[in-house]
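Hi there,

I know you've been waiting on this one. I reran it after we fixed the sequence typo, so this is the corrected version. Both the input and the resulting structure follow.
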Amino acid sequence: MSDVRRTAGKSAPSRPWAILLVVVCAQMLIWLDTSILNVAATTLADPVRGLGATPGELEWISSAYTLILASTLLAGGALADRFGPRTTLLAGLALFGAASGAGAFAGSPAWLVVARAFMGAGSALLMPATLTIILQSTPEEKRTRAIAIWSLSSGLGVAVGPLAGGALLSNFWWGSVFLVNVPIVAVCLAGVAAVVPKLGGARRQVLDLRGMALAVLGLSGLVYGIIEIGNQETWYGPHVLLPVAVGGALLALFVGVQRTSPAPSLDLRLFRLPGFTAGCVVLLLAFMTLSGHLFALAFYLQGPRGFSPLQAGTVMIAPAVGIVLGSQASPMASRLLSARWAVAAGMLAMGVTYICYLWFDERTPTAVIVTLMGAQGAGMGLIGTPLTAAMMSRVPQYLTGAGSAVSSVTPQVGGTLGVAMAGTILSGVYRERMAGAALPDELSRLPPRSAEAARTSAEAARSLARSLRLPQLAENANRAFLDAMYVAHFWLAVLAFAALAVCVVGLRVRVRGRHRRVLWPQEPAGEEPDPADADSTARQGTARKERKGWHDDSGNAPLGPGDRGKQRDRAGHSPPLRGGRGPGHGDLPQ
């Protein structure tokens, strides 16, 4: 039987649901690995049961994955277009599985950080390829349902990850939370090889390697400086200011490169659209607060609250359930309140829950914890769909791919910065509180390295307290950690309310006169023009604009005949590229 049948005049694989099942399993790996680490962080910090990772090393173990994923995700999409999504998916799965196996047997936190970085690179190949396969392999009448199922894989991974991680840590060593990925990858590889065909339509893309390198190095420098704030007693030394300055300079250079690149990783024109920049800021802050909160919560549940890994994993299902319920309610909320106020309601719910954590202690009832986590997840779920709709509502059809890429990268960047910020606050405040606490005399007789570990890591202090039977040390560590958690959640709440303000002010839809404010004219319907005809198309489009006039985003009057120079001066764009390559970055699409 042929693997391909005709659907709506185009070739479509004859087993779309089998392909969807394989692709969803592969996509779920990304979110499973992200959520499973939240439960394992406390064990990794334990010097007896784990690697004895310091707070800064734990932040890097978590951040390395999302940092590389965010920086290389756009390149993953370009590779899927160039070599085909099936090839890219197979490569991503192989890299992810190999890195997971290496991470499971890492002998030090540094090697685990390296393994996590390669896992992030594998995920960057996975994510764009899975969606591309669905779009190309599913008949048009079933495509919406298939994309909805694909989207739910993230919620399934977030829900299953903590429970699976807790069960594994309760019965096996810490490396099992990474080793479990290997058999799942093997099944996915066999499934892709068996049911996913070589899909056509791939087009040759130019990889922006220079932009990708600048993004990785710039974000790494910024994150390194933020993490070092919590690891040192002063924040204004060269160990903090130098990496932050270098990272900021590299990110500024990245922006400059993207403005002039003929094949940019990030299309900066999008940020001139009304509401798009505000939406990105809200999305960034929402994921910063969520990731920072979950990072701190894992230590609270298994530290002062005294939960086992399995109990903590079970409790941490609550936000995943809340996200699913909030996502289901978001379309109705958007219809009743508008997209702007639906997003505002979600950010308000998240900010209020972060404030409530200021009253948590060692005896907070489990029901209260679960309820607040569920409410916070519901707020996050309420944000996603209407925020994406508000961001993409002004994006022209020919830039939807670039807009979707930005909306995919922004949460990963927010997650990286959120973990770095929350970890820095937890580490810095804990160190300060322990420095002023009355510690047992037995601690002074320990080797300096052990005593210092107890003053910088709550997990190390509890481990010493268990081995030396020093309950006072454990109490001091728990009290210091709770104070640090209060400070962290105060600032998380500040960020959530800042996102609320940006949402209310920046997501307003404004219309001037009879013309909607647009940055570019709509691309004419029909097939994509041949790149070889770029110059003639540009001349035709210019003549059309000179006859009709059009508005730019600054609210200026329509451009008429003889205003081509003014058009260029207003937007700051360069003339179209020549040599048959079509419009480049910064050009007005015709």
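Quick highlight: Residues 1-12, 510-590 have pLDDT under 50 and may be disordered.

Best,
R. S.
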